[in-house]
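Let us walk through a complete example step by step. Step one is to write down the protein sequence. Step two is to encode the small molecule, 6RS, as a SMILES string so that its atoms and bonds are unambiguous. Step three, shown after the inputs, is the structure prediction itself.
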Amino acid sequence: CAKKAKTAKDDKNGLPLCRMLLAELEAHRDAWPFLTPVNHKAVPGYRKVIKKPMDFSTIKEKLANNQYLNLETFIIDVNLVFDNCEKFNEDDSEIGRAGHNMRRFFDKRWTELLQ
Ligand SMILES: Cc1ncccc1N[C@@H](C)c1ccc2c(c1)OCCCO2
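Step three: the predicted structure of the complex.
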């Protein structure tokens, strides 16, 4: 039979942890650029440059549709939000700084929760 999951990353607690982490991301003051999909009509070049768009509302939808296997696959999508941000935005810009702040916050929170 399947090996019993041993850590929060894999066991049944993984998904409630994802929902909690996402709620904290959405509530963060610097979340505003990441709450909804980037409208490529409002942001010239975005569709060409960013091959795999991702945002917090899409992650929320994927969680609701049980599309994440575990905390690991959830973290991959959250990091995609921040990697897209770094690719498209200058570090020294409103959105660029927000992305760095959010990544720092997220990295701190999930590592704290996994201890
Ligand atoms: C995460 C990200 N990366 C690159 C560009 C935009 C975004 N976020 C979107 C939601 C956004 C933020 C600010 C915006 C905007 C759209 O509409 C165009 C007008 C200026 O204001």
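Step four is interpretation. The mean pLDDT is 93.
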